[in-house]
Write a structure and sequence with these properties.
- Helix content is about 70%, strand content about 5%.
- The chain is mostly helical.
- The strands form 2 sheets. It has a two-stranded antiparallel ribbon.
- The longest helix is centred in the last third of the chain and has 54 residues, at about 185-240.
């Protein structure tokens, strides 16, 4: 039973090898491999950049060029051809895993989820590395706040209140509260860092002032009540005793 099975296996392998020689896999044109390699390098650079700038999150600002390289290199694959056939077909349509297309979609999905497109301006519907208006205004307000903090040092909670409020109000005006990430993730992370700093430093300062004010108010009220109580007791002790006189009236009958 074992020998026939081995013979059958050998025959099957021989037939497969013969068919492989008769129908070899089509070779990929060097023109396609060159654009594929460019896409591979661009994808690798973008992934590395995203990881390097994951904390603090500056993915959008620091990786925009790498992301644009991914888009351009993938676009070049779709434009390049192999004997009249798009090179993209060789890497997508004939590849069950769709590795090239999957890597492209992963890059686009990461950029979209972080809403990085809101940090940059569009030119005729095309992504550019030029900061958008909201990004420019927010960065300007944030820089004003940082400059104030650096100048004020220990008194920043008082002197920088106005710049902090302006920064916070602008962020709330451009952020969509109904979405998990309301605006470009770089801006969200920067605002979260600002809130953490302000809450840990200045909210304690404000609570301290409130405690001092409340304590002072309570002491004044207690002192006032005690004053009236003591005044009432002292007044009662010093009050003179008034004796009532009973007058005996004699009635005389005069005849």
């Amino acid at each position: 039973m074992v020998i026939p099975y081995i013979v059958l296996t050998v025959v099957t392998l021989s037939l497969n090898l013969a068919l492989a020689r008769l129908n070899p896999e089509p070779s990929i044109d060097p023109n396609c491999t060159s654009v594929r390699d460019l896409f591979a390098n661009a994808s690798s650079d973008f992934i590395q950049c995203a990881i390097d700038h994951s904390r603090p999150i500056t993915l959008c600002a620091d990786c925009v060029q790498e992301y644009l390289d991914v888009l351009n290199s993938y676009n070049n694959i779709s434009k390049a051809s192999d004997n009249g056939t798009s090179c993209l077909n060789s890497f997508v349509n004939l590849d069950r895993l769709g590795i090239v297309h999957t890597l492209y979609e992963n890059s686009v999905n990461l950029w979209t989820r972080a809403k990085c497109y809101e940090c940059f301006a569009l030119a005729n519907g095309t992504n550019t590395p030029i900061p958008s208006d909201i990004s420019h205004v927010f960065q300007s307000l944030y820089q004003d706040f940082q400059d104030c903090v650096n100048r004020s040092r220990e008194d920043d909670c008082t002197k920088c209140m106005d710049t902090y409020v302006k920064l916070q109000n602008y962020f709330l005006s451009i952020s969509n509260e109904n979405e998990k990430i309301g605006v470009c993730m770089d801006i969200v992370d920067l605002m979260n860092t600002t809130w953490t700093y302000w809450g840990g430093r200045c909210c304690k300062f404000r609570r301290h002032n409130e405690i001092v004010f409340i304590t002072s108010t309570v002491l004044v009220l207690v002192a006032t009540v005690l004053f009236y109580i003591v005044a009432q007791i002292y007044t009662k002790k010093r009050m003179p005793t008034i004796m009532e006189r009973k007058l005996l009236t004699a009635y005389c009958n005069c005849e």
